[in-house]
Specification:
alpha/beta, Rossmann fold, GMP Synthetase, Chain A, domain 3, binds coenzyme A, binds adenosine monophosphate
Length: about 625
């Protein structure tokens, strides 16, 4: 193995050569000659003249090279009591057929397809089928409600929606059909067809526009991979921004394929034949990159798990899967480990299983708190690797790279900057901060292949949202600092994005729903500390003059509205009535101050504050003490 410093040095001395060589891991129809196009800076494009097909890289080439009988996807669903294994050959056949089916519904290269599905292999099949056609998929997480779905339909304008009749949560069956119908009703754009995978737990009654998955396959013929430019979009993934309108993060084909291959090998230390399990959901970026694309592009076996870490059936659920499939690498959000620890802090469930196959536990999606890190280290006795990144980057920005010579792991830090990224810490004026000083985490442009080239249909919003605060740099929205060995420490978001159980949410969109309640004069939604979920949203509301309402009734109404309009994933359960919200003398709400207090950071109270007593009254509530009211 080579050392991190050697690889970093190779990248620093000649980034273009570095990424030209990395591109050799991909099978190109036309190999790229132009590696980086800087002519449209600050918009950069990678491998501009390269031509490839991402699906062919994930499937066809492995079958052609003799990997056809290896299992590509292991589906395990304790929620339905079912298991399935699909070899690379079987997966290729199904993807090719489904691509043919989509084509028969009028899906062509460049068209969008919205996928709203639970964690079943058909979700991956639908994604790969789109990639095969050169169509652009947009997967929407099943925990979002109709209005959120409608916003995505109107932005992406899909020709077809691919869905299932239901998703399954431990406490209930979630019927998708009414959600999709209502979303299509709310949306201006109308898809021409909806493909529905019928599930026996709640079959849907199909209407005129709907076609059943297997009926579509019955008349379809297989479809060959369609050549696309490296810069053609592979997918759009909507993520929460500061405002209510979600941002359509675009991922292109070429840079993405290279980044997936490079990161799976070098960051995660995984390769062909390894069994890999990212216990996330295809609706999130982790699901796109590391449930579907990276393991398949690299010829590994990917586990797809439909269940929770606890209660399906117990806190040994994850360890059972690791033993059964001899999993070599596991990737989860820290919240899942906290949930397991809560149920089984002594690790007795863990000791019922033989998990020697597991080389590394990777944790990402939210801050890894030292006590979770320490518990996992003690219980598992393997490296526990924090990695920091975001939907926009698509792959890790900071990590302890397991495909390179081992480096020390430090509790509280996702370790070092991954080659390809040039990360700096800036103060508000844009001056670089010395080791130990906290500031905005920014990335010098150009960012590496696989990172977002733009937002869907909105270059200006991309520039305004990410590239304008510090020209020449991408603003991550996180703050942090380096120690004197260049290990990064990520402290939290500097904007109105919160992270609930590894799910990214915008407090702005929650506030919009809360503020729409006729009894509410004004409100603020802040992420407060939660022992299991890391953060949970808490709404602080000021009632309109003369309104007299039972707090329980108000809470019920607001919680129901948020569930209805954003979805259960928003997880807003706490609504606190306060007499006033802290403001400056000119009436500006002190959100950043409230956020800082909620995050446990040292905050300087602005001298312009109107009434310090108002802030003092809600401080315990911001710090996570829900009983203080
Ligand atoms: N479809 C419909 N509803 C969904 C859903 C989906 N795909 N995913 C979650 N929900 C619902 C849940 O049922 C829950 O509803 P409830 O309020 O009626 O109970 C609500 O959304 C909140 O879900 P969640 O935040 O996941 O809480 P939970 O209590 O169900 O589970 C954990 C808590 C920690 C076990 C769970 O969040 C977990 O395993 N997280 C792993 C993190 C992860 O996958 N992160 C992805 C990025 S890496
Ligand atoms: P998402 O786009 O949903 O992946 O969320 C990205 C955000 O989650 C980041 O900007 C961080 O705020 C947070 N995040 C992800 N991984 C980590 C990590 N390892 N440590 C700290 N925060 C993280």
């Amino acid at each position: 193995m080579v050392s991190y410093h050697e690889v970093r040095q190779r990248w620093e001395s000649d980034p273009v050569k570095f990424w030209r060589e990395a591109a050799n891991q991909i099978e190109w129809i036309n190999s790229p000659k132009e590696i980086l196009d800087e002519t449209q800076a600050p918009l950069y494009r990678w491998y501009t003249d390269g031509v490839l097909n991402t699906c062919a890289n994930a499937l066809d080439r492995h079958v052609a090279s003799g990997r056809g009988e290896q299992i590509a996807i292991l589906y395990d669903s304790p929620l339905t009591g079912s298991k399935r294994a699909l070899t690379y050959r079987e997966l290729l056949d199904q993807v090719s057929l489904f691509a043919g089916g989509l084509a028969s519904l009028g899906v062509h290269k460049g068209d969008r397809v919205l996928i709203y599905m639970p964690m079943v292999p058909e979700a991956a099949i639908a994604m790969l089928a789109c990639a095969r056609l050169g169509a652009v998929h947009s997967v929407v997480f099943g925990g979002f409600a109709a209005a959120e779905l409608a916003a995505r339909i109107d932005d992406a304008e899909p020709v077809v929606i691919v869905s299932a009749s239901c998703g399954i949560e431990p406490s209930r069956i979630v019927e998708y059909q009414p959600i999709i119908e209502s979303a299509i009703h709310l949306a201006k754009h109308q898809p021409t067809a909806v493909v529905v995978l019928q599930r026996p737990q709640a079959p849907a009654v199909l209407g005129e526009r709907e076609v059943e998955w297997h009926d579509l396959l019955a008349t379809a013929t297989g479809h060959d991979p369609v050549p696309v430019q490296a810069t053609d979009p592979l997918y759009i993934l909507y993520t929460s921004g500061t405002t209510g309108k979600p941002k359509g993060v675009v991922r292109d084909n070429g840079g993405h394929a290279v980044a997936m291959a490079w990161s799976f090998n070098n960051v995660y230390g995984m390769g062909p034949g390894d069994v890999w399990w990212a216990a996330s959901d295809v609706g999130w970026v982790v699901g796109h990159s590391y449930i579907v694309y990276a393991p398949l592009i690299c010829g590994a076996t990917a586990v797809m798990y439909e269940g929770k870490p606890v209660g399906t059936p117990d806190a040994g659920a994850f360890w059972r899967v690791i033993e059964e499939y001899q999993v070599n690498g596991l990737f989860v959000a820290p919240t899942a480990i906290r949930a397991i620890r809560k149920e089984d802090s002594a690790g007795s469930q863990l000791r019922n299983y033989d998990i020697k196959s597991l080389r590394t536990l990777f944790l990402a999606g939210e801050r890894l708190d030292p006590s979770t890190f320490e518990w996992a280290s003690e219980q598992l006795g393997i490296p526990i690797v924090d990695n920091w990144w975001q939907t926009e980057s698509g792959w890790p920005i900071a990590s302890n790279l397991r495909g390179l010579d081992p480096m020390p792991i430090k509790s509280g830090s996702p370790s070092v900057i991954v080659p390809g990224y040039d990360v700096r810490i800036f103060d508000v004026q844009g001056s670089e901060q010395p080791a130990g000083a906290e500031g905005a985490i920014v990335i010098k442009l150009p960012m590496p292949p696989g990172t977002l080239p733009t937002l869907w249909g909105d270059n200006q919003r991309f520039i305004d949202s990410y590239l304008s605060t510090f020209p020449g740099y991408y603003t991550t929205g996180d703050s942090g600092f380096f120690d004197d060995e260049k290990y990064l420490y990520v402290m939290g978001r500097t904007d109105d994005v919160i992270n609930v159980a590894g799910h990214r949410l915008s407090t702005g969109s929650l506030e919009a729903v809360v503020a729409a309640n006729e009894m509410v004069a004004e409100c603020a939604v802040i992420g407060v500390h939660d022992e299991i979920k890391g953060q949970i949203p808490r709404a602080f509301v000021v009632l309109k003059a003369g309104v007299d309402v039972d707090p329980k009734t108000l809470r019920k109404t607001i919680v129901a509205a948020v569930r209805d309009e954003i979805g259960p994933v928003a997880a807003l359960k706490e609504v606190v009535i306060v007499p006033a919200l802290p403001k400056t003398r000119s009436g500006k709400m002190l959100r950043a101050t409230m956020r800082g207090i909620a995050d446990g950071r040292e905050v300087v109270i602005p001298s312009t504050i109107e009434d310090i007593a108002v802030l003092e009254a809600i401080t315990p509530l911001l710090q996570g003490d829900s009983t203080a009211d």
